[in-house]
Specification:
single chain, about 70 residues, about 65% helix
């Protein structure tokens, strides 16, 4: 039950806050700094973040066994 609540918390609280923060940074900093950038909406930033995750998934931590091989 705790893992379900944790997953729901991440999906419903953490991810929207992250997307909102990235949108604010994009629209306030990047649009002012370069000429080619246009303001984006919440949903466009969500799409960008999903595409970046697909292209650059990062490294997953390895589980180390307790035995010395």
């Amino acid at each position: 039950m705790k893992s379900i609540l944790s997953a729901l918390g991440i999906l419903l609280i953490i991810i929207p806050i992250t997307i909102f923060g990235a949108t604010i940074l994009w629209n306030s900093v990047l649009v002012e700094a370069v000429t080619w950038a246009r303001p984006v909406t919440f949903w466009q930033m969500l799409g960008l973040m999903v595409l970046f995750y697909i292209i650059f998934p990062g490294t997953k931590p390895k589980i180390k066994s307790g035995t010395n091989d």
